[in-house]
Amino acid sequence: MTTRYKFSLLGLALLGALIGGCSSNAALTPALREAAPSYVHSSQTVYKQIELLSRPAVKEAFELFKDHNRTNRSEPYDDPLLQHQIKSFTLAFRSKENADTLQAILYPNVMKVDLSQDTTTAAYLGVETGGATGSKYGGRALSDDIIDISLGAIFGNTLSALGLIPDDHQEAPCLTTDNIAYDKSNTATFPYIQAPL
Amino acid sequence: MKTLRSVGTMAAVFVLAFSISLYSFRAARGSDHQDSPTVVANPLADITDVFAFPDPHDASRVALVMDVRPLIPAGMYSGIGLDPNVLYQFKVANTSVTSNAIKENLVLQFTADATGSAQNITLYGPAAPNEVGTANTLVTKTGTFAFGKVASLKHGIKVFVGPRRDPFFFDLAQFFKIIPDRNYMNHPHVPPATADSFRFASRKQEIILNGVDYGTAGSNKCKIAKPQDYLADYDVLSIVIEMPKSMLAPASGSPGLIALWATAGTPDGHAE
Predict the structure, then answer these.
(1) For residues B109 and B125, is the Cβ–Cβ distance under 8 A?
(2) ipTM, 2 dp
(3) Which of A18, A37, A55, B239 has its CA 20 to 30 A from that of A1?
(4) Mutation site for A-interface testing, chosen from B9, B16, B34, B35 by largest number of A Cβ within 10 Å
(5) Model-level pTM greater than 0.95?
(6) Cβ-based contacts of A33 with chain B (< 8 Å)
């Protein structure tokens, strides 16, 4: 029994090491890892962008998967493809005012943070909505329900409720929330995010 | 002894095969988890989330977070570190943001010096970038610190790079039934949608949005099933930096409106 327990522990340890290893070329054991060559980062090396993220879920909601790779290699202010698709996706089921307004809010594809605000509360899209999401600071708190905020703007009445556009009465109530609430345990101190499981 | 070793080898091969399949055959999940073939090829360059918020105890300081390496199963983070081939960057524009004439004028860069978690991380900046655009070189080094430990660097900068529970929460499996195109597993032959609704726990659930009552889930014919946070049991690697917000202010100005984004880059522009 004890032996079997030890073996399963060993198996778990191996699995952990190998999951890391298979994706990162990490060495498979601590001994090997110590022997891995150090990487020297030269000031001459030019790193070419392969991945980009700012506002969460914008690519995922609006842009065709086949175009993500191009957006990931673009500057967030030089991405006419994403800019176009924010509008064209929305036009399929909402009014032109909805589509135009979402495009104006979400492009350029950056996260806006107002550091002049003297507050300890961040709120996703707070800058773009004048604080309607909870704080003019904007940015994004760990507990911000960015999915429901996004779904409300795309499928719900968020934009008309803010007085930005008339209600087009084309809401899709079954799509305005994914019904998942934040239940993870932030810590009050740096680095704030819950310890790993 | 020989038998033991071959059993060990077989176990390792099996475990390797299993762990590869665990990564490859799970559906893509997240706010930006696995969002292009390039980042699926290298999860260590896959940025899953970006956060920006004040220190909860000190409004004069700001924390920036970039999460990478999606879908580390609970308890399995041991040995996983940043990819030393990758340059991880926060990019900031702190002028002309109101007019949307956005161009980065500050960068905060991170590199690792070895594979695995026995690595040291170096922070460069925040400083003006050497190049504006998607091809970048390193700016001035600020400090080096160990993976997995909180460190204090000069100028009041605090840093941490290491495993954390994925803070993102989303019923992504249901999202992929609604928009199958967004799941990389569905390409190139994307199946039709199999749902037109998120999942609602009960027929009686009221759908109220911005003060407007849209009736119950049942009356709207929404799907009635238990919603599930598909990130609930996974860890990620978090890159966290906190600093006085004056460090992100325009030259000789006070902190104001900034635009923020995060990037990952490699020397040849491939996933490595």
Answers:
(1) yes
(2) 0.87
(3) A18
(4) B35
(5) no
(6) 79, 114-118
